[in-house]
# Entry
Amino acid sequence: MVLLLGIGAAAWWPVHESLSFVVAAGVAIAVGVAIGALGAAFRWSGPVVLGATVAAWLVLGVPLAVPGKALGGVLPTGEGLLDLIVTTATGWRQLVTIELPVGDYQALLVPVFSLTLAAAVVGTTVATRTPRPEAALLLPALVLVAGIALGAPRGHAPAALGGAFAVVSLLWLVLVRPRSSTPSAGRRRGRGVAVALVAGAAAVSVLVAGALPAPDRRVVREAVAPVFDARDHASPLSGLRALLKQPAADETLLTVTGAEPGSRLALARLDAYDGVVFTVAGSDAAPAATASGEPAASPTDLFQRVTGRLSAATDPASAAGGVHDVTVGVEGYAGVWVPIPDGASAVAFTGPDASTLQNALFASRRLSMVADLVALRRGDGYVVTGTASAPFVAVDRLSELEPGAAASPAATAPDALAERLAEWAPDSRPPGDRLAGVMAGLRSGYRSGAPGSDVFSRSGHGADRLQELLTASPMVGDPEQYAAAAALLARAAGFPSRVAVGFVVPALADTGADTEPDADTDTDTGAEGSPVDLQGSDATAWVEVLTTEGWVAIDPTPEVKPIPPSALEDGAGSVQPPEVLPPASEGLADPDPGTPAQQSDDEPAPRDDDPGPLLAIVLGVGLGLLVLAVLLAPFATVLALKARRRSRRRSRGSARERAAGSWAEVLDTVRDRGEPPPPRTTRREAAAALESESGLLLAERVDAALYGPGDPSAAELDALWAASDAERRRLLGQERGLARLRARLSPRSLRTYHGKEMNRRTER
# Structure
């Protein structure tokens, strides 16, 4: 049983991949098998085995499955017990909506710990105490199937695990056959032949499995829709204009420590364009083209709940340098999108709402972006571990790049796109030269909404706005339009592309601090050790293209320079028309919390999920009552079964059967005291053995009721039961303290229904 359960638990390795999992599953299997074996050896009743299992689950569950909530790492706490109880019921859903592996994150070890413990107890009990021990194979098989269903699409050595489980299962079926009259020598020879056949079949199976192609594997997580869908929130690129205008332009939105000047904090990466906005490609984005022209990803490939450790496969625009931490403090920023540096590998929240934010963290492996359902607000903070981002690729180096994949131009691109492409990047040039020509052409335009300027061109990045940008002479726009146009032109030139929105960390001198370094001072130390305020004016958008070197970042926005008066007179550059916001998603009645445009200087209201003192008291009392109920459940079950038996004996059956039941209750009380009467004795002999005059009188009255000429009347039955209750109280009264309580809670008398046994004797 230990070997079978160990093989079954090994299927859970891709879910956790941690030493904590090995310890939790190993202890659960060992303790569960021990409880089942002790129950069989000492003939424990069902309630006793259940009580021992629940006690082991409560005592060992917190230190093994919820180690972060264990006192000193070994003692359960109230909060840990609450997590253990709740996660036993809800952890299965969390496992299929979170990115793997989860390690010992929060309480997600509870499902495998609870399952293996229960399977070990039940499987061992079935194998040792039933006439069909082969049925015990169902329990290890359940652990194995659950690990496969809740695991990753690619299993951990599936052929080896499946073959080992099959071999051990066949050996089990051979070795646990009921004993027969076959001589021992013949039985040993038969078992030896069976073992040899099993070994041969296993060898053939392994060879066949290695020769056949691996079939597609479908797991539960592939059928579960994600909790977070980026398409339910407005495009962050549409909200960029609000960050560049007052009052957000001069407001501190984030405070960053440890980031190098010029590095980027990406708010979102958008790879689908439908002619209106750039968004995240999804399974139903029919008109939108993804960066590489491939079919839109399924929802499970977009955002998955993560533990805080981002996928190692994350490859944002660039990642160079050693691993370091960047600390971000949230000031005026609010939204579901979490700004993270390029190359981020882990996110850990700090502050009073750290646990709430960590529990609602989602990440997209494909787009290297992070979101939080709770939404960031003033006072939150987080630490990002990762590698430093490389600077924007210079335009004069773009000619050296080669496309990393085939790109599909957007079907809804403006008509002027082809004209500008033919002008800046003719088809006769290599892809790198075409990309360099596109970026140089865009950077020849003029930027509106520069810091310190109140000149803004028309907002938006729909096809009509990009048509206006590309046909104007000179071109005037802000990072929103230039980034969108650059992404579409790069795709047309053969490079997969996407638009990124975020912040560029300024130098300390730009924030007003004195940053003149001494001759012997390392400038990086000052940059990484001093906090830098990110204002709305530091927000921007850029384009990322896929090359043979990976995703690289390019800044297509022109440098700040005076805009010609002709452009201000002919266009709408000197006028700020009303903002044109994208249509709200259907079914959303409230403003989108993920739009960066929703900025406010007022202190936001407290989160609804912040528990108050009253809620904390209610949870504490409820937890205490729940734990107490679990601990007392086995004893309450014994008392309830005895009360039900006494009621059935007193109210059901014929009058003679009810009379016999009054004496059976007395005998059951004697058995619960641990002093059963001699077997195969009459009632009078049993009463004499008890040395009880009242018991002898009751035995005579019961005999008279059973063997008399007529059935006893209702009054006679009431008198018999009253005498029986008095005798029971007298017998229990002879015990003192714990002995009396032990007799009341003893399950010995529940093993036999003595009333029915005596009635059968009477009928005979």
